[in-house]
Amino acid sequence: MFKYIVKRVLSTIPIIFGVILLTFILFDLISGSPAQIVLGKNANIEDLEQYDELNGYNKPVLFGLWNSTRILQDSSFDNSLQPFQESDGINHVFGIVDGYISFKAGEYPIPMSLEFYPNEKYKLIFEYKTDGDVTATVVNGINEMQSLSLPDTRGKYKKVVFPFKVGDITSKDMFSLSVQGAGDFQLFSLNLRRKITRPFDSRFLQYVINVLTLDFGTSVVSKQKVTDVILEGVGPSLCLAIPIFFGTLFVSVCLALVCAWNRNRLPDRLLVILSTSLMSINYIVWVVAGQYLLAYKLQLFPIWGFNGAYYFVLPVIIGIICGLGRDIRFYRTIMLDEMYMDYVRTARAKGLPGYKILFKHVLRNALVPILTNISISIPFLFTGSLLLETYFGIPGLGNASINAINSADIFVVQGIVLVGAMLYVLVNLFTDVLYTIVDPRIRLK
């Protein structure tokens, strides 16, 4: 068994890595700039750059020698003249239409949004085309030795890289574009890249380290550590989820055994109708009906709050009712499969009472699929019930998830999703070991 457990633990490593990679893609890449989410849409570019620098979001995603920077955002001129403006004297009549801006003879500053970092290496990347007798030069106004002549392309596209190093002078008004001649200089794209000193020190590597050290960041709304938010919400979530879990499991298994023993008779048909009806009614209907009838009209339970065990009674009842329909149908199918096995006929032929056949033989042999269904539900005990906690004001992880989604608190959502995914992997590992306990025919190999 020890060898099998070691092998299963090792097999979970690529699964956990896949979960980390998937959440990184969803929350770090697809969701947009973390700095913009945390600081808000009205944050200035200096604050955004400072946030990225402090938290490592200006590193390459996986690996790289060069990375983009907010000092000069990538410009393609397909639908914008940024960073250049009309006041710069640029002939941009055809710029937006054809994806470029056209410079006539003159001196044009290349407007950087921020100052450069001192003692860093950069490179400017131009994609351009010249039309007619024109020469263009990129000039470093601080250090005249750093300049680049952009050669005539003879009407063809050309990409030129201008590498440079910034010393102690980091002015953002450092570069200008000098155009001379009677022709046009057409600029299609202008990009700035910053040299990475440690190319393997990437955002993904930092993300993996943070996950393994349980550092999920800081909540945008409450300014608490996400780990603290999760720890505060686990207690209320378990107080609600554990009674619902065990109550639903006990009632549904007992009723499924009744169905199996009385197949196609009145008790079985009534329970099938009941379970189908429970599955057909929406979860919210039970919540609203329970709050209105039992809490508001009859005043048997409190409607809202988290001040004692009595506040959990109504949501637990609703949670059990909502889960019974699905579980009764599932466990009924399992029990019926067992009821037609040879060992059941043998037990009946020996004259064993019905309750012994059901609980000692049928239930025992049905424990493997039951255990599988239980293992799927266990991770949700920790991540909370979204609707019940929200409607009844229980400050668990489900309520925290809803609030985080509504307020775009991406780090809290990310932390809860990661915790749920990790629990799911660990519970599956634990379930595989339990199979040998509930069914001696299974061997761990």
Total count of helical runs of at least 4 residues: 15
Number of separate domains: 2
Give the helix/strand class: alpha+beta
- The CATH topology assignment of the largest domain is MetI-like fold
Average pLDDT across residues?
82
Q: Which residues form runs of ≥5 with pLDDT under 50?
A: none
Overall form: elongated
Secondary structure layout plus pairing:
Layout: H1 2-30, H2 34-39, H3 45-55, E1 66-68, H4 95-98, E2 101-103, E3 106-109, E4 121-131, E5 134-140, E6 147-150, E7 158-165, E8 175-181, E9 184-195, H5 203-212, H6 226-261, H7 266-280, H8 283-297, H9 313-339, H10 342-349, H11 354-365, H12 367-383, H13 386-392, H14 397-406, H15 410-438
Antiparallel strand pairs: 1-9, 2-9, 3-8, 4-7, 4-9, 5-6, 5-8
Helix pairs in contact: 1-15, 6-7, 6-9, 6-12, 6-14, 6-15, 7-9, 8-9, 10-11, 12-15, 13-14, 14-15
